[in-house]
Write a structure and sequence with these properties.
heterodimer, A: mainly alpha, MetI-like fold, two-stranded antiparallel sheet, 11 helices, B: 2 domains, 6-stranded mixed sheet, 5-stranded antiparallel sheet, 11 strands, globular
Chain lengths: ~250, ~270
């Protein structure tokens, strides 16, 4: 964007919002919003503490396990649904229900089934992320050029070879789009899991800070979390752009 | 060439014996109540190019896909070198109208893809692919990706891929319809050379009368609803006169006119 003929770098609007935050914080309107500068100083001091690093590790572990399961199960399931009418008829209603269902309500059931530990948190994360990945992989497979499928058959591809050498790659733009949205939902899942199931990780920090009115700490952790989610999502968006050249030419 | 002692189909044509690479026997294909092909029998002589020509909707692509093993006929059977066809096989290769290249793979990998699916070792299949990339005139483009090539060049990749698997029968589904007129003419000349140099049987689907007459040893005219072979034309005189003389040969012009006369009533 250009203002008064000067090209502004990307995300310069953040500076404006940061300034507003700082002014609101300094005006002392509400204890809920401390000045941004104070939050950043707190952020820096919190980063090195063992409590924060433990929380980071626990959250990262649950998050990556959840994403790993949703990708490893979701992509093949979606491709199978796109390729097999019977499997599609069986699973599609459930995928659609779970995609739009308020999954938070399911968390107590998961606690009964899988206990109060990390397992339940990973499953919650997976449940948040997997459905959109399945749906997008399925959509990706359904739009594969018919002659590409015929080409694979003609040149004697085994079902496995067709799956790994043709269908997966032909559906990759849609699959990556699904993974990107799934990852964003997984962040939601992991925090909800940590808050509801067992108070560990960032969830525990949020609980601790907000109960003790440590608002600067609360915002600092939130900024770290948003930053991580944003970075991962942008990285996947970058991968998507890298392969978009062939999305239109399949 | 297949020298195994299988049953050979032999027909008598213009005084000398011609072996058939592909025969279709009473092929019928129904899509629900719609009859796409009825009792279609046709022989494709070995080492020659046969065109399937007809108005749109006459089932020529359906027939080609049945020969490829991609579609199952409702009744009847296809024989390749005397053996009945039940599905796609290494004795047939397909050239697609829309090229059907892998957009994420280089020209080299695309051309070698048929061999890759057969489990040929990487160095070996790439050596074969490089040879055919040179043969179709794409040397220097091995590392390029399909989206960096023009339509004509992409179809050359598709052709090289089909040649690289070295099957006896080449099935071409309107291969030049998505490329521009000048490129198409060049392709047609190259195809004539290919038929002479490669010892392969070509089955060629087209809706262009001129193209069919120009490239074919034998033209099967298909008429629609339901499809059947109405006529088989074998141009005799101008095949040997060289590519540049065909288009002004009298016999060529006569055949083009004759085919148009018989097809025009079927064109909406």
């Amino acid at each position: 964007m250009r203002v008064f003929g000067i090209r502004l770098p990307a995300m310069s609007s953040l500076i404006l919002w940061g300034m507003i935050w700082e002014i609101v914080g300094r005006s002392g309107l509400t204890f809920f919003v401390p000045p941004l500068s104070e939050v950043l100083v707190t952020l820096y001091s919190v980063l090195g503490t063992p409590a924060f690093q433990k929380a980071l590790m626990e959250t990262a572990y649950a998050f990556f396990m959840g994403v790993l399961f949703s990708v490893a199960i979701g992509i093949p399931t979606g491709i199978l649904m796109g390729k097999n009418r019977l499997i599609d008829e069986l699973l599609l209603p459930w995928v659609n229900i779970f995609l739009s269902a308020p999954l938070t309500a399911l968390v107590p059931v998961l606690m009964v089934l899988f206990g109060f530990g990390m397992k339940s948190i990973v499953i919650t994360t997976t449940l948040f992320a997997i459905w959109i990945i399945i749906l997008n992989s399925r959509a990706g497979v359904l739009q594969i050029n018919r002659s590409l499928v015929e080409m694979a058959r003609c040149f004697g591809a085994s079902p496995l070879a067709a799956f790994t050498k043709v269908y997966f790659w032909a559906a990759l733009p849609e699959i990556l789009g699904g993974v990107r949205i799934g990852v964003i939902r997984a962040v939601k899942g992991v925090i909800i899991g940590q808050l509801l199931i067992s108070i560990v990780g960032f969830g525990a920090l949020f609980e601790l800070y907000s109960n003790n009115f440590l608002m600067a700490h609360f915002w600092a952790v939130l900024i770290v979390l948003f930053g991580m989610a944003f970075t991962i999502s942008e990285f996947l968006a970058y991968l998507e752009r890298r392969i978009s050249y062939y999305a239109a030419k399949r | 060439m297949d020298m195994s002692p299988t049953r050979k189909n032999v027909v008598e044509a213009s005084g000398f014996k011609v072996e058939n690479a592909v025969s279709t026997r009473k092929i019928s294909k129904n899509y629900g109540p719609v009859e796409a092909l009825r009792n279609l029998s046709l022989d494709f002589p070995k080492g020659q190019l046969t065109s399937l020509l007809g108005p749109s909707g006459c089932g020529k692509t359906t027939l080609l896909k049945i020969i490829a093993g991609l579609l199952e006929p409702t009744s009847g059977e296809v024989e390749v070198n005397g053996r009945a066809v039940t599905g796609p096989g290494p004795d047939r290769a397909f050239v697609f109208q829309d090229f059907a290249l892998l957009p994420w793979a280089s020209v080299l990998r695309n051309v070698a893809f048929g061999l890759e699916l057969r489990g040929v070792a990487k160095s070996e299949r790439e050596a074969v692919a490089e040879k055919y990339i040179r043969d179709v005139g794409l040397a220097g483009f091995e590392k390029n990706y399909p989206h960096e090539l023009s339509g004509g060049m992409r179809q050359r990749v598709g052709l090289a891929r089909a040649l690289a698997v070295d099957s006896e029968v080449l099935l071409m589904d309107e291969p030049f319809s998505a490329v521009d007129e000048q490129t198409r003419r060049k392709f047609q000349e190259d195809l004539l050379n290919l038929v002479q140099t490669e010892n392969k049987t070509f089955i060629f689907v087209t809706h262009s009368i001129e193209e069919a007459v120009y490239v074919s040893d034998q033209i099967a005219i298909l008429l629609p609803r339901p499809s059947r072979v109405s006529e088989i034309i074998r141009p005799a005189g101008f095949r040997s006169k060289g590519a540049e003389n065909i288009r002004r040969d009298l016999e060529y012009l006569d055949i083009v006119d004759r085919i148009w006369a018989s097809l025009r009533t079927y064109v909406e």
